[in-house]
Write a structure and sequence with these properties.
single chain, D-Maltodextrin-Binding Protein, domain 2, alpha/beta
Length: 355
């Protein structure tokens, strides 16, 4: 992750003995005052370019401190547990799978950023403006192109394909109890197969020797065979933008991504930021949310976190335009339905897949 830029020092020169210039009467200048600090609690995958951070610090005369707090679920839990004595001023990265939990806990102050005028209404889900949409990404199956190049078997094209015998032992997924990506994929199967069918679908995946990993990093880099992965499984749950990341970070320049996306069964995640109740820096926190929605930062987000900006008027980087696959109709579930059933679904998933 990018290192934080050096904080801008603010010098406050006060006169002594009423002179205002520090001369006479043995007066001395007071030491420089420390800049105001803004603490942002976020998940471990948060990243912004150094220049975006320093621009905010310089403009606001403040220091930005990033408090990384695990994955999205762990981060939200910490914010709720510490709400009487908040650990931060801003929370960034609560996604649509955990948002209702955070809203129900009443941990945010309402704030309406003027930059929201550039954000499509589809992303503005809270009419009380307690959270502000910042980016979105679609969780999809990713495949290793080389593994399916010979066509025997052909690359899968649907969720249903994964239960077929020819794909036995090929899939790695993330545990929804510990991974927001894994949870999004579980929600995709609920959205697709409904309450009557999703457990049967997962029973079929278990019969087909699905491998469960704790988190995205281990699944993608440790178990997946495609791209930068070092494993032997040619199908993994990741993002529609992952092929673009493979091209952008390739050690040897390549014209084609070594991975591809199965566009069937993708689930949309939207990430939000909010000002935490109890902050003493509400105005500065609002300025930071404005900064996250500004065009320069929105245009930087794709190559830093490999998700899409929510603004509708930004230019995407060329590698996204060429290699990130667009999901026209992602699966989604109502947030209140997710909140009401999340723990039960995870428990039933655990009984079906792991026990």
């Amino acid at each position: 992750m990018k290192g934080l830029a050096a904080a801008l020092a603010i010098l406050i020169i006060a006169g002594c003995n009423g002179t205002g210039d520090g001369s006479g009467g043995g007066g001395q200048l007071p030491p420089p005052a420390s800049p105001t600090e803004l603490v942002v609690m976020t998940h471990d995958s948060f990243a912004l370019p150094d220049e975006a951070i320093s621009a905010f610090e310089d403009e606001q005369g403040a220091t930005l401190r990033i408090l990384r707090s695990g994955d999205a679920g762990s981060m939200v839990n910490q914010a709720i547990l510490s709400q009487e004595d908040p650990l931060a001023d801003v929370l960034f990265g609560v996604d649509s799978t955990f948002l209702t939990r955070a809203l129900d806990a009443d941990i945010f102050l309402p704030y309406g950023s003027p930059e929201l005028a550039a954000v499509p209404e589809i992303f503005q889900v809270d009419d009380r403006l307690r959270v502000t949409p910042i980016d979105h990404g679609e969780v999809c199956l990713n495949i290793d192109r080389e593994a399916f190049a010979a066509g025997d078997p052909p690359a899968p094209t649907s969720l249903e394909d994964l239960t077929l015998p020819e794909y036995r032992g090929m899939l790695v997924v993330q545990d929804p109890a510990s991974s927001s990506v894994g949870l999004a994929f579980l929600l995709a199967t609920v959205a697709r197969f409904g309450e009557e069918g999703w457990r049967e679908y997962w029973a079929g995946l278990r019969e087909n020797e699905v491998l469960v990993s704790d988190g995205w990093e281990d699944a993608y880099y440790g178990r997946f065979s495609g791209g930068a992965g070092e494993g032997d499984r040619p199908i993994v749950v990741s993002y529609a933008s992952s092929p673009a990341a493979e091209v952008a970070f390739a050690e040897t320049p390549t014209a084609e991504a070594p991975t591809a996306v199965v566009l069937d069964g993708c689930y949309r995640q939207v990430e939000f930021a909010g000002i935490l109740q109890g902050t003493e820096q509400a105005e500065l926190a609002g300025a930071f949310i404005d900064h996250l929605l500004s065009r320069p930062v929105q245009e930087a987000i794709p190559l830093e976190m490999f998700v899409y900006p929510v603004r509708g008027d930004v230019t995407l980087p060329e590698v996204f335009l060429e290699h990130a696959q667009v999901v026209e109709e992602p699966l989604e579930l109502p947030m209140d339905e997710v909140e009401a059933n999340r723990q039960r679904w995870i428990a039933e998933w655990t009984d079906t897949v792991l026990r």
